[in-house]
Each structure stands twice: as C-alpha cells, then as structure tokens.
C-alpha cells in the first residue's frame, strides 16, 4: 500500500508529538517541523503529499511558509491545511483566498482532521494521476 | 483847457456812474471818438491775465459811414495777430502812433489798409500793474499829427480805465466773498448778532429765522429781542454777564443756554461774544454768535445713555468686557477684572494685553488679531492669561472690531470668560476617555490572546484523550506509551492552571482590586522560609542565597512580595534546567533594598528583550517550556505597586539576572 506522507508544522512540542502519533496511528508517514523555516529545510529533500501547519510560530510563521510554498513551482501543488488556535473569520478568509486548502481551528476533533486530510489527499492523487496520464500520452505521441 | 477838463471828467463820470463795466466802456469809447474826431475807437482785452497774451476785440465805436469790425472774425483775428507781433512795445507801457502808410510791420500795415486807416494811435491799459489790453484810435479821413496834449489826455484817460478795472475786480471779489459768507451762514446752524454799545441797538443775521422761527422784520420790530429769547432760568445771569463783559469786568462772554423758539419749545444753544474796541481802546460793539446745539446735546444725551447702558451691561455681566485701541492697548476694562484676573481695572488701562498672555499662545493670538483686522468679523479664541498672582487661567475671548463712520478700524471690543474649569474638565474627560479606550483595547486583546493561550493546552488534552481512546480500542495498550500520553495531559492541565491563576491575579491588578497591607518583615528570614517551602526540594536544583550589607527592617506587603519572588525564582529554575543552580542575592543598600535573582540558563534572544514585559509574550527560545506569558508582567506591576523597580539583564545561552529594588519604608 502506498503510504501518504504528511508534514506537520507546529511550535508546541506537545501538540507536535500528539498529532504526529495520531497520524502515525492512521498509518501516515509523518515528519514534523517546529516552524516555517524548519519545514522549508525538510522540503528540500523530502516531498510530502500534504502539509498541516500552525499559524503563530517563531522564526517563520504559517502564512509566510504558505507564501513560500505557493511561490515554489515544485511545492505549490501540495495541499496545505492550516491548523491554528486563531479563529478570527477575517484571517481564515484571507488564508483561503491566498490558496490554502482548508483551515481548522484548535481544539479540533481528530475525525474532522482525518476527513479533511483524506479528501485533500484523494484530490491530490487524482490530479497527480491525470497529469501522469497526460505526460505518458505525450510520450507516446512523441514515440509514435 | 476847460473843454479838455470837461472831456476827462465826462469819461471819469462814465466810469463811476455805470455799475456795468460794459456800459461804462462803450460810453467812454464813444466820447473818446467824438472828442478826438476820429473814425474808430476800440478796446482789445487780454483774456489770459498772464504772460501769454490772448486778445479779444471787446468794444468798438465807429463814426458815421465807417465800417465796424467788431463782428468781423477774420479781420479781428489778423489784427490780433498783428498786435501780438508788435506787442513787445505796447506791453512795456509804450504807446505807438503814426500814419498807416509808414507802418513797418507788414501784417499790421495790410490790416490797416483793409480798415482804410490813415492815422492810428495805440495805447496799453494796465490794471494793478497787469497788462489788461489796449485801446486803439483810427482816423480814416486824414493823415493827422497827434498833438502832445492829445497824447497826455489819452494817457490819463487810459489810467482811469485801469483804475476802474481794478476797482471792478475788487468789488466782484468782495461780492463773491459776501455771497460765500451768506451761503455758509444760511446753511449753518450758527446765527450772528452785532450789538452797538452806544445806541444799544442789535443787528441780527438772516438765519435767525431758520433757528428761532422769527422773520427778520419780527426780530427787528421786537424791542430788546435778544434779551427775551433766553430761558427764564438763565436770563438774569446772561444779562449780568453781558453787562460785566461790556464794562470790561468779564474777560469772556460765552456759555450754554436754552433759547425759546417762536413755537415755544426750547433750543439748546451755545453763545459767545467778542468785544470790538475803537482806536482809543473804548468798547464800541459786541459781535457774537449763537449756535444751535440741540442736535449735539441730544446726541450727547443719547451717547451718555448708551454709554450708561453699556457700562451697566459690562459691569453686571459675568464676562470681562474690555475696549482696546487700534494697537490693542486697553482703554476700558470692566470692574470684574479683579475677580477674574486679579488686577484692578485701573492697573490695566493703557497696558497691552499681549504682555499677560502665555508665550505658547502668543503666535495664535497674533494670527487671531490679523484675521480680525482682515475679515472684520466676530471671532473667538482660547488662550492662557497670567493673573496677578502669576498663575494662568484659560480665557475664551470674543472680539469685535469698532469702526468709524468711514468704516475704518478705531479699536476693538472684547468679551472674555474664565473657562479654566471647562478646559480642565475637557482634559480630564479626554484622558478618561483615552484611558477607557486603552483599557477596552487591552481587555479585548487580553481576551483574544487569553482564549488563544487556552486553545493550545485544550488541543493537547483533547487530542491525547483521542489518542488514548484509539489505542485502547485497538488494544495497543503499551503502558509506557500510555504514561507519556497521561503525563502530557497532566502537563497541559498544569499549564492551564498556571495560566488561569496568572490571569486572575493580572485581572485583579488591572481592575485595581488588590489592596496593600504594609507591615515590617525580616527579608532574610522571609527568603529562607520561601525557598524552603517552594523550592530547594530534596533531589532537585537549589537556589543559593547570599546576603550583603547591614540588615534593615523592610516595610512591604508580604503576599505581593511572595508573588513577585516565586514568579522570578520559578523562572530562574524553569529556564536553567541542567545548568548551574540559580542564585539569590539580598543587598541592603543605604536607602533601598536590592534583590537579585541570577540564573545561568537559556537567557533571552536580543530581539525579544523589548517585549518581555508585554502580556502573553514568550521569548522565541522557550517553546518547550510551559509558561503563560504573564509572569514578568505581573512581577513588574506588583513591584511598581510597591514603589519598586525591575531591571533585567540577559544574554542568550548565558542566563538572566533580574534585579528588584524597593525602598525600606513604604509610603
């Protein structure tokens, strides 16, 4: 079975560990980072299928990380979900407008998180497959 | 000879007899022509009366059968021009005569030929030494020789003409002056009288009618008219004064009285008289005037009435009323000045109010003044004014320009009121409003941050509960793993409790609900008990306590000091796990007591230092350590509440020193 890879970014160690364990329990391949900069460092050598990210963090916060990822053509397609204690409607609206795939607020029910994660991953898979098909068609055309 | 005298006297008679100069001259030239048996006699008048001559063929007499030229424009003009060319001789009072054919001036010769002149005689006329014109005599029948006597007579007649002209000028000047005088007299409200001391008769000028309603005849027909027109109150006194004045006992005869109009009503009048003496110094006449000053008196009455009204208002209003000169100096200050600004109103007269104005308001006052002068509209300003005792009050002043009849500024009127209380209340209200707004912002920020702070431990607790549940359901009951999960939950509950406690304390302090209970404490003993009770547990890290200086009694609130010190010491332990033990030094200084808590732990990154005393702020290197972000805020608030100060020195990875300083006595 193809295990989906998730990058989880949060500055609170207890949150980081707990969520990682929960996701691992659901058989995801999880790596964690304590802030945006650490996440970018990991992304240089490890490509996840989905990113879950806190908003308020030292060094580089969630919005800045999201902006960096959207600018990067290799990373921009990775689904990006915010998971933050901030719950101001204006902030949530802005994040979604900027291209985030979802915004969950803390505290959250794990089931909800899993639902969102699964849905995003499925769509991401479909897109990936579609693109692969397109590329193989192009290859075939090229060979023919 | 007799004939000659009669001729000259006839001419003089014409000149005296006729009031019209034209009639006189026409008669004269006719008689001159007949007497000398010539054909034409005429007078050319110099119109310009100055250096530049302008001639006018004004009068002419011609013998029977001789052609007149008075209305012949062309010939006259040529004659004038010809005379102008020879005038240099005539102009200098020299006569000129001779035969027409011998004349050397071509133009004149030609003209005289046209006029068929055989002999001519020209004589200049001077009046008051000014060239008036000349007289010309022409004979068209014979070439005659002008005899000496004839020349002499003509010269003396010409002089008489000159005298008549100057007399004419004088009379017309006098007439004009009289006319002017009468005009002014009739249009003025002043009447004249002349009293002859010898005959005791009085002459009155015509405008008495206008003033008193009597005609000139009525005035002249009423015996002792002038004594009857004064008001009964003044009559006797005026008569006595007049008698004394004419007798030389009084220097002046003048005063104000009321005179009675023909209708019976009174007219306010100003009278005065001048004594005319003869050459020997004996009084002959009194010339005097009466002036109708009813209007003036009425205006004065109105003015004093309105001034009284103004003063009544100015003195009875609660505002300070002032009048200023054009330059701003005070001309009038209402008596309220003492109550409002502490100066007696007399002290301020002729002073410049700008000297009393606060220097910070001066530029505004100057702008205000220029704006009023420019726009001439009522404007209001507030400024500080220095009172007699040197303190300043706020005045609100409204200024109005005072204009004369030509709309020129003659001064300013101001009304000022003390608005110090209002300004103070405004300021207090603004400050209270700002404080309230700040407090509200703080409160809403606080609530938002506090709720955020609670969300993280709640997330950890809930997620760990879920994790635990999943593990139990799936029979993965590894006791070690479960212990980790449970300890996480416990930790977070602890964090929430601390957060909650701090929020409660913080909230109390914010709402100023904390009361100080000041009592003397022995700080040495106090610190020993504190460290034993809360810290320095067996097996854990310990804090080393050092005491310096001579111990003194410290007056403070014990429970607040406990809060402060447990917070600071707790931090020292929390952020220096695995590092050398923290230290506590008590230093008894002369006036203050100093408590230093030193740790050798994480320290604070430089960029975070400015925010350390901000609610909920946590340094960027403390993520793994539980904290509420309120500890130092509370330490600072409580220390300042106890009149102390907090200083913080820190270096990342080297540690932090917190220095608390308090006075011994608490006031």
TrEMBL record, chain A:
Matching CDD domains: REC
Source superkingdom: Bacteria
Keywords for this protein: Phosphoprotein
Residues of the Response regulatory domain: 5-121
Coiled coil (residue ranges): none
Record-linked Pfam families: Response_reg
InterPro entries per the UniProt record, alphabetical: Bact_response_regulator, CheY-like_superfamily, Sig_transdc_resp-reg_receiver
Protein name as catalogued: Response regulator
Organism: Flavobacterium hibernum
From TrEMBL, chain B:
Stretches assigned to the PAS domain: 306-376
Catalytic activity field: ATP + protein L-histidine = ADP + protein N-phospho-L-histidine
Location of the Histidine kinase domain: 449-666
Top-level enzyme category: transferase
Annotated InterPro entries: GAF-like_dom_sf, HATPase_C_sf, HATPase_dom, His_kinase_dom, HisK_dim/P_dom, HisK_dim/P_sf, PAC, PAS
Coiled-coil annotated residue ranges, if any: none
Residue ranges occupied by any PAC domain in the UniProt entry: 253-305, 379-431
Entry-linked Gene3D superfamilies: 1.10.287.130, 3.30.450.40, Histidine kinase-like ATPase, C-terminal domain (3.30.565.10), PAS domain (3.30.450.20)
GO function terms (MF aspect): phosphorelay sensor kinase activity
Keywords noted in UniProt: Kinase, Phosphoprotein, Transferase
EC number of this enzyme: 2.7.13.3
NCBIfam families noted in UniProt: sensory_box
Annotated protein name in UniProt: histidine kinase
Source organism per UniProt: Flavobacterium hibernum
